[in-house]
Amino acid sequence: LEKMTDLVAVWEVALSDGVHKIEFEHGTTSGKRVVYVDGKEEIRKEWMFKLVGKETFTVGAAKTKATINIDAVSGFAYEYTLEINGKSLKKYMENRSKTTNTWVLSLGGMDYRVVLEKDTMDVWCNGQKMETAGEFVEDGTETHFSVGGHSCCIKAVSSGKRKEGIVHTLIVDDREIPEAVE
Predict the structure, then answer these.
(1) What radius of gyration, in Å, describes the C-alpha atoms of the chain?
(2) Which InterPro entries does this entry report, sorted A to Z (predicted)?
(3) Which candidate among 18, 80, 131, 169 keeps its CA 20 to 30 Å from the CA of 26?
């Protein structure tokens, strides 16, 4: 395994199916460009005469579009920015925190990362889309699924405030799990 000597940038991107690591190698003398997603080589280009530009690839189970922009800052200095679905990583993550809820919990010595996609009500756990059963209850809805033999329920209840909208709570074995901040 050749050592990554031209590694210039590493990003961590939290998607519904997990947190993905993106690494970028840029050989400024050879013009080499290599993109790794979760340690797997996605793009390799040798001997590029143009040192600036962009590389586009996909990340995760949903094949989310990602682009690395390579810009010259001054002389032989370069700046590398990552865009997810056409937005800067920061903007994408800010928007994502509005459209998803994430919980991290430990059950029987195993760690689980549960993600609710609010627009579709899809539930993901450790990279797998879960089978769920939804039901209407007196004060909102409940989405039921199980993780590692434990019964789980995401309750969706109106906050009563227009700005806050609907509040989602994960309950596992009658225990409320605090939301994670990613």
Answers:
(1) 20
(2) FAIM1 (IPR010695), FAIM1_dom_sf (IPR038513)
(3) 18
Cα–Cα nearest to 36, from 13, 53, 52, 15:
13
The DSSP string of 102-167 is: EEEEEETTEEEEEEEETTTTEEEETTEEPP-EEEEETTEEEEEEEETTEEEEEEEEE-S-TTT-EE
User: Biggest alpha carbon distance in the chain?
Assistant: 65
Contacts of 115 (CB under 8 A, 6+ apart): 16, 100, 101, 102, 103, 123, 124, 125
> pLDDT tens digit string along 94-115?
999 889 999 999 998 999 999 9
Can you tell me the distance from the alpha carbon of 158 to that of 28, in angstroms, rounded to the nearest whole number?
54
Confidence of residue 2 (pLDDT cuts 50, 70, 90): low
